[in-house]
Every structure is written in structure tokens, then in C-alpha cells.
Write a structure and sequence with these properties.
The protein is built from 19 helices and 17 strands. The chain is of the alpha/beta class. Belongs to the glycosyl hydrolase 13 family.
Length: about 600
Amino acid sequence: MTDARPSTLADATVLAADPDWWRQAAVYQIYPRSFADANGDGIGDLKGITSRVPYLVELGVDAVWLSPFYPSALADGGYDVDDYRDVDPKLGTLADFDEMIAALHAAGIRLIADIVPNHSSNRHEWFREALASPRGSAARERYLFRDGEGPDGTEPPSDWQSIFGGSAWEPVRDGQFYLHLFAPEQPDLNWANREVRDDFLRTLRFWSDRGVDGFRVDVAHALAKDLTYPLRSHAELEATKLATDGSHPLWDREELDEIYAEWRAVFDEYDPPRIAVAEAWVAPTRRHRYAAPTSLGQAFNFDLLRANFDAGEFHEIVDRNMAFAAETGSSNTWVFSNHDVIRHATRYGLPDDDTFEYDLGKAWLLSGGVTPAVDVERGLRRARAATLFLLGLPGSAYLYQGEELGLPEVAEIPDSARQDPTFFRNAGVEVGRDGCRVPLPWDADASSFGFGPVGSDASHLPQPTWFASYAVSAQEADPSSTLSMYRRALALRHELQGAEKLAWITLDGDGSGGGADSGRAATDVLAFQRPTGWTVVTNFGTTPFALPAGLADLEVVLASGSRAADAPAAGDADARSVVPGETTLWLR
């Protein structure tokens, strides 16, 4: 393209200029403060990430999604941004960032940077200027200030509630309030303001020029807002929060199309074009607006993340999202864990939960991880099976740091050590997300489990003693470990990947195969084939399933279960044709 320009600070020639690299990429999310600490202060940093690039290469990921690394007071884990075009000094410098991205690119790994456009921090220079300026000023117009209500103007403009609890309006001393959908330290920006829009276009170019390959867009469905008076009540907002006509005053409004069309124009200035993936918690029928090629190009679907370990649920979710991808020309995203949710190795060890907000998991966290009891072995078994199912699907796979170790959620964090604002603003209602953000265990025998340098035992969130058995050092030499399974799966995924299609295989079952009751188990089993002949079979039930003729003759190249269950001795045809309960096989 005529106005395409390569990165100016990172070597753009190291990676192939493939505009479709993202469509079936394995993307590894790094929460930088909890990944690796190079200087021993207990906080992960950019140099720590650079030091672990060989690990990422051996793991086999195609890209890294880096959670916010910008200057921040950490009122919300870095999602309260002081400066969108700099690095938090606690994490490093811009030079450290350039070194990190150069190391990733030299290793063939791309970088997706988290960007937080809905709100800045209350320490951002714009917001400090707004507080120092009078009502009606240009500085205040960058945010969403409104006059107070009531006889003396001391009541908030509405009864809206913050996502993190409490009022969504914070008073300032002159009788006005500002809107914050999240923490008070995160004032919402006014995206109807041209200055706000232009500044974010500069930010997109700033990081793209440094070699960033794409962006994960935080709360992408919230930027446009309608604050026309009279403001609706909180009850009305809750009743219509999944509206599908763009009418909600805060979420998923039609004006977003224009905003993201401008972003797309910036992305297309580069060769290859920068990519973006939207975090948009919207009705499935609205997701295509963010995934359209004229918009961000891809949007997370969190459907599998919310699903029970159930064949029917998984089948319906895959079918629905495959249809959406075909309609938009986008690519599917598949995800089980991230920095905001209970790790799926723990979720799958809890009883099934059909609530949208995952109330059972919240109750379990509130109990300190006591009630209901978690079946740890079953949770990991199901998580491994679900992961191989996900990695077999066409589309991109988003993995969260530590899931390749089978890490469970950490529930036993003392109140005094917690950091998540949801804990402080929703006391007795929610514990928050700290349990999935505990620093990773690298070395079972080292202080801070190798999170920091030798001799450092600092860790910004406490690591439980049982982390030792999940450490990289405890797993890397074990061919049956979860880490080994991920490494093998990602290597095979590169080898076997074909067109973004799948064909479901009907499994009737005939009751044969080492006594497995395949007729009864067939409703618990899903099987699909990719265009290369790669076949994925997942038994969601507990009853072993006998593979029908044709599949039973294929080679098992990978299995989620133990070798004793999934890789019988050569020549044992009956055992080889059986899929154990809660297990996934890859066949070819």
C-alpha cells in the first residue's frame, strides 16, 4: 500500500510481513507485574520478560499480549493509566521496551499491547488539569463532568453503580461530579470530544512505530456514551445491559463504528497492518461490529470461558461462533482464562454453574477456597482436555500465563495482601481477581520460586507453598506434565494447522472397544476434523468411549490424559480405540 510504513524503532524485517498472521495465532497473555522480576523488588518488569523469551520460544506461542505496562498508581492493576506513551518506571524504560520487543521479534514472536481507552487514571495530566479548571472548561470537556443534584447540589447526577461497587459518580469540590464506570481513580474519557479521539490516534501510532504488532482494546464497548438528561436509573440500565439495538446509554453504542473506523485507518498505514482484538462484553449478535474488517478486526468471545465442561454447550458455542466468523470475515478467538477470571483448572473442579456472573466461583473465593470443595485432580484433568479441544479449533487461541503449568486459582490470600479494588469496594460480596495474578513459579527450590533473581524472596502477592509442585522446574523434564502437553500441542498445532474450517464427525457408537459403553457415552463426546485430516475427539463424560471404525485406526499423536490411559502398548488395539472419560485425543 502506498502509505504503508514499517516500524522505525524495531526491526520490521525479522518477521514475515504476513497480514493474516493473527487469524490462527497462539497468543500468550503476560501480566507483567507477575511474570518475571529482574531486579528483585517483587514486581515483574520488562527486563524479566526479555529474560524469559527462550521460555516463550520453547512453549511455541506466536504472539504475546502484554497487559498494561504504562505509568500507574495500580488502583486497578495498571488499568489506571497515567501516561499512554511511556513505561512505568517500576517496570522499566522505553529503552527496555525496545529491547524486549526486539528480542521477541528476533525469536519470531509478535507483540500485542493492551490499550485502555475508556478511562485514564486520576493522575493523568489531563485530569489534573480538569480538576484545576472551572466547570464548562475545555479541560473538563475531555471527561464526563455533570452538576450534582438535590437542593444543594450534593447528590450524584444519578444512582448509577460502578462495576467495582459503589457510586459511579465522584464529587469534586465545586458541585460537579465525574463519571467512573470502574474505580474512582479511573475517570471516564469523553469520546465525543475530538481532542480525545486525536490523542488516541497519536498513541496508536506511537506504539506501532516502536514495532507493536497489534492492540488488545480494554472495555472496547464502553467508549461512546449518551448522558442526555434525564439520566435513566440504575435498574433501567441493568435491565437493558445486553440490548441489541445500540440504545444503551453506556454500552455498545452505534457511535463506536465511527471511532473504530478511524483506528482501522491508522492500522492500515502499516505493512503489515496492525491488528486489534476487542474486549467487548456484548450480546453475541453484536460482536461482529467489533470484528469487522472495517473496525478492530477481531473480538474476544468469552463463551467457552463461561461454559460448563459439557459437550452440548461446547458444540453450540463453536457452531455459533464459526457462523459469526464466516459472516464477518474475521477469525474466531478462543479463551478459558485471563487476568480477570478464576483460572479454569479451578473452575472445572467446582460444581457446574449456570449463572452469568459465575456466582459459585465468587462464593468459593469468599470462603477462602473452602466451600464448595474443589476436586483439584478433576479440575486439572478437565482443563487439560478442554485446552486440547480449544487448541484444535480454527481461529486464534488466547492463553493466560501459568495455565500451561496447570496453575489453580490462589484463594488463600490474606486480606492485608489483597490489591484488587473490587475487594475494597465490595467487601463481603467479592474477593476480587488477585488469585489469578499471583507471580509465577519458575523454580521449585528457589526463593520466590524463581520469580525474582537468586536470593530475592520478594513477591508483590504471596505465593503459596504448594506452588512448588507446579513450577516450571518441576514439570519441564516430565513428558506427562501439563507444561509438556502445552509445548507438544503448540508444536503440533503449527504442523497440523490448515484452513479455518472444521467438520463435525457423527459418533453413533456400537458398544465395542474394551467394554466401553460407547452407545451411552456418545452424547458426551464431540469429534471434529480439520481440513488437513487432523481429528480431535473429546470425551466430556466419565464413561470411556469406544471410537468407531475409521477413527480407531488413526494414530494418537497427543492426549490430555496420562500415558497409561491414552497411549496403550503397541498392538493393544482395543485399548487404543478407547477415549477415557474427561479426555481429549488428537488423531491423524
